[in-house]
């Protein structure tokens, strides 16, 4: 346990609307969704149908939500879903999805229908935050009656799509998880902050009821050509979960309300890139996300064709 002090709220007391408002007012815009995401989405209209599936109520004009869908759409092909930016501060999830769409998706266009949602949480992207404006974590909110607008809008969109064979959800584990976001979570919930360990390297999170370890291994192998894989800690764990294969842990996706449980896909993984490593750069992190997508899809190509 840590005696860490968070500057909002009182120790041991969960936040009410006043503290949440105080937290929101302390956030600042640090980068541009328009310049870094929307302009890149617009440039992809040659090869994708760009579909708006909603907008965030905090500023609907500034934060429209878009998905990219294969063009042409071939009804007989299996569908692959790629999501990024569920946590807006996890940069390579957003940029890796866009890089794959721009530079690598063509190699899969004849074998998969692709749905790419590059930035689920654009307000979080601009403010470099894990939460949404209501102090809610979208990636614990993929549930019925979701408290997260970001999750609700994505769920409604996916409900109207064909069956998804594979879902690759792109994330990062960062040093700021322990410096800011987990302390904020403890303060919000009126609980003590218990320090954790940030793993140095890439890992994946599979679904406990449907781990698909061969699929996870293919993703890990592909990424290992780009960046290092996180080792298990002294307890044979990564972030408190048992390592079931090199670089692989499992979570019950639906039970926890995670984006990885969004669909009934047969194959799914959540990637976790470590951008704060001395061995990493933004470009390497983006490439690792692309490698994860390609490793997963290449594995399925061998299975299907």
TrEMBL record:
Residues in Peptidase M14 domain copies? 29-305
Domain of life the protein comes from = Bacteria
Keywords tagged on the record: Hydrolase, Metal-binding, Zinc
Q: Which Pfam families match?
A: AstE_AspA_cat
Cofactor(s) of this protein = Zn(2+)
GO terms in the biological process aspect are: proteolysis
InterPro entries according to UniProt: AstE_AspA_cat, Peptidase_M14
Q: CDD domains of this UniProt entry?
A: M14_REP34-like (cd06231)
Q: Name one GO molecular function term.
A: metallocarboxypeptidase activity
The family line of this record is: Belongs to the peptidase M14 family.
Q: What is this protein called?
A: Succinylglutamate desuccinylase/aspartoacylase family protein
